[in-house]
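thread: overnight batch results

M.L. [08:02]
morning all. the overnight job finished for the chain we discussed friday. pasting input first so we're all looking at the same thing
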Amino acid sequence: MKKTLVLVFLLMLSTSLLFAQAKHVGRMTKTTEKSAIHTPSQDEPAGLAKIYSNLGKSKTDRYLDTNGWTVNGPNASGFNGNYQWFGMPFTPKSDSHVSQVQVAVEWVAGGNQVNLNLYSDSGGVPGTLLAGPVTVTNLGTFGTCCTLAIANFPSTAVSGGTQYWVVANTPTSGTGSDSWDAWAFVPALYLQSFFSNQNGYWIGFDAATAEAAGAVYGTIP
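M.L. [08:03]
and the structure it wrote out:
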């Protein structure tokens, strides 16, 4: 199974801007690096603890800026009315309160924005909305590093040892429904989850070498 996933991943990356939809693997977007000079990412939030992070430790090497999971609205050009949202799982080590997320979602085309949300888990996929949406605009350009999309939430309680999700999505109509973004990778093999109107429900899957990059901050009593 692992060899099959890796083969699928390599085949999908052979196209410069990818639209192909596998049954149980989300759409990916690929580009070339637009600048060899990396802009340092924003600072970690002062006064908040790190609840979860898979971001690179260097502020100029936070994530892989040429490959990402597609996040698009139904009016994004080239998708024929189909859309996809994406979720990154995280599990707090202890009871905490989430106040901010920083994720590597970058702009590709259309409306330059994304909605970020916190969800509970339901059998390995996003379940109930806990906080959000928070609309983040002026995203970094896909193919550059290392600007992060940052959303602040009202303090939201999460339980230690329980899985939760940071979800990136778009409106289904109106402003932002034409957005096409990419959630950049870090190299890993982890559970991911995506939603598309073609399926009509969230699907969880193991993503070979393609974990969505991000961090969760808050307070830990």
